[in-house]
Amino acid sequence: MSVDPFEPMAVGAVALGTDPVPDEACLAGTPRTGSVDLATVGGAVVGIWEMTAGAMRDIEVDEVFVVISGRATVELVESGRVVSTIEIVPGTLCRLDAGMQTRWHVTETLRKVYIVVDADGTS
């Protein structure tokens, strides 16, 4: 799927296939995730990511995202300890740095639009 220039897209209506979160990343429930890359702009990939209710751990990449729908609490973990917690809701913009260890606790299916650039500056 891709976005053409000057073609609007209803990101909430884009169908995403989801897969179960792998056992080693799952913390609670039976969450599923799915994503689709939509465009590459100036070396950055723009896409949509979704996670159903449940909890999982992740190691992040350089990313900026905006929450479109859903609710979650995200914990920043350092040396096995939670050092910060944020609540994300529709309209929240957040930046993640590569290597951050996070725990996502989704209470209402979360959908976000992301912008990601690899550490070496390419997509």
UniProtKB/TrEMBL annotation:
InterPro entries the UniProt entry points to: RmlC-like_jellyroll, RmlC_Cupin_sf, UGlyAH_Cupin_dom
(S)-ureidoglycine aminohydrolase cupin domain mapped to chain residues: 42-114
One Pfam match: Cupin_3
SUPFAM superfamilies assigned: RmlC-like cupins
Descriptive protein name: Cupin domain-containing protein
Organism: Microbacterium schleiferi
Lineage: Bacteria, Bacillati, Actinomycetota, Actinomycetes, Micrococcales
